[in-house]
């Protein structure tokens, strides 16, 4: 699946028509915040995994 410039422009045009020009900055801002929170949570999860010593298997 190869997405080129015409497809990207078509997608952007459809998004503009669906949400309107006034809502696009709010959507982009909320998308950026959610991506930042996701990365932060993933890094915190990785850090907590590194701190935990491996548990001994129970028999």
If you had to describe this structure to a student in words, what would you say it looks like?
This protein has 59 residues and is mainly alpha-helical. Helix content is 73%, strand content 0%. It has 2 helices and no strands. The relative contact order is 0.06.
Which helices and strands appear, and what pairs or packs with what?
Layout: H1 5-19, H2 24-51
Sum up the structure in keywords:
59 residues; mainly alpha
Overall average residue pLDDT: 85
The Cα radius of gyration reads: 20 Å
Poorly predicted runs are none
Estimate the helix proportion, in percent: over 70%
Largest sheet: none
SSE arrangement, N to C = HH
Strand content: under 5%
Q: How far is the N terminus from the C terminus?
A: 49 Å
Number of helices: 2
Count of extended strands: 0
Structural class by sheet pairing and helices: mainly alpha
Label the overall shape.
elongated
Question: In a nutshell, what does this entry contain?
Answer:
Helices cover 73% and strands 0% of the residues. With 59 residues, it is an all-alpha fold.
């Amino acid at each position: 699946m190869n997405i080129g410039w015409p497809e990207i422009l078509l997608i952007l045009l459809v998004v503009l028509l669906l949400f309107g020009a006034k809502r696009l900055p709010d959507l982009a801002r909320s998308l950026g915040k959610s991506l930042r929170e996701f990365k932060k949570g993933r890094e915190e999860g990785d850090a907590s995994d590194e701190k935990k010593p491996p548990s001994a298997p129970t028999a």
